[in-house]
Amino acid sequence: LGYFGGIGGSSKSGVLIKGANYLEALTNLHTVVFDKTGTLTKGVFRVTDVKPSNGFTKQEVLKYAAIAEANSNHPIAKSILEAYEGNIDQDKIEKYEEISGHGIKAVYDGKEISAGNDRLLHRESIVHENCVGEGTVVYIAVDGTFAGYITIADEIKEDAVKALTELKKLGVKRTLMLTGDDHSVAKKVASKLSLDAFFANLLPEDKVSKVEELMKELPAKAKLAFVGDGINDAPVITRADVGVAMGGLGSDAAIEAADVVIMDDAPSKLATAVGVARHTRKIII
Ligand code: ADP
Ligand code: MG
């Protein structure tokens, strides 16, 4: 009965804990691992710069990017579609492929378009400059030629600062961030939030093996939580001792895989959940 009280009480405060086991695990929380985009940052990108190359115009770079992103739900895609003001003829999109952790490949009007990160262009053996922008860089190539890049920026959630302060106050020993984004972007976020460590340029499967590694390093009884939001995050959410999903913007797959669901995308609710778990345990004992 006490445990159910805990679960019900937590849902009123905006967290849903899916079982007594996780209440117990939360009381022994040692390490918290966060995804970056959409978890610690708002996941709402804005185009801040377009840099054409090889004779392409800014307008063309944006157009090809928008065509490639037209059918993607990724936050990056939304920002590019917002910045592009022209029309896209959906009938001319002959092929479309979203490669997780890389970006998009599409064929439009007979032209082969790639839009994604450095890894995607390497995979396609497309010669390009190495671009470091103020934010996340999206490279665009048309028929194997580098056409330019778009810089997009995201913001850290104010609540993320609170989350990290409160978790440390509650005795969490280690806080980390795993991201598929570039090292330079990850470094900025990690230092602003004073995280203990971060790992960048990870594919979804790399996130799983990193979390497995971290779990092996835990002292006896100590638990690890992973907090994420994307479809990509479902495997790692499943693997962690306590898998936490953002319920607001989060994908259905992530929410379903999660042991703890944060209803309003505020990462500090994980600290709330730890508080609830400890309180509930006191009542039971
Ligand atoms: P995160 O781990 O930060 O949540 P993802 O795993 O969703 O990020 O994506 C990792 C990286 O893959 C992005 O930073 C981006 O460089 C690239 N990427 C993924 N999807 C897209 C897309 N639709 N368009 C362009 N780039 C993408
Ligand atoms: Mg994400």
Describe it for me?
With 285 residues, this protein is an alpha/beta fold. It has 2 domains: 2-41 and 157-284, Rossmann fold (3-Layer(aba) Sandwich); 46-153, Calcium-transporting ATPase, cytoplasmic domain N. It contains 12 helices and 13 strands. The strands form 2 sheets. It has a 7-stranded mixed beta sheet, sandwiched between helices. Strand 4 and strand 5 form a beta hairpin. It is elongated, with a radius of gyration of 21 Å. The two termini are 12 Å apart. Residues 1-5 have low confidence and may be disordered.
Features:
about 280 residues; alpha/beta; Rossmann fold; Calcium-transporting ATPase, cytoplasmic domain N; seven-stranded mixed beta sheet; six-stranded antiparallel beta sheet; about 40% helix; disordered N terminus; binds adenosine-5'-diphosphate; binds magnesium ion
Short description:
This protein is of the alpha/beta class and 285 residues long.
Layout of secondary structure:
Elements: H1 2-12, E1 15-17, H2 20-27, E2 29-35, H3 36-40, E3 46-52, H4 58-69, H5 75-83, E4 93-99, E5 103-108, E6 111-116, H6 118-123, E7 136-142, E8 145-153, H7 158-169, E9 174-178, H8 183-192, E10 197-199, H9 204-216, E11 223-228, H10 234-239, E12 242-246, H11 252-257, E13 260-262, H12 269-284
Parallel strand pairs: 2-9, 2-11, 9-10, 11-12, 12-13
Antiparallel strand pairs: 1-13, 3-8, 4-5, 5-6, 6-7, 7-8
Helix pairs in contact: 1-12, 2-12, 4-5
The structure holds adenosine-5'-diphosphate and magnesium ion.
Adenosine-5'-diphosphate is lined by residues 35-37, 69, 72, 74, 76-77, 101-104, 115-117, 136, 138, 179-181, 230, 232.
Protein name: Heavy-metal transporting P-type ATPase
Subcellular location: Cell membrane
Family: Belongs to the cation transport ATPase (P-type) (TC 3.A.3) family. Type IB subfamily.
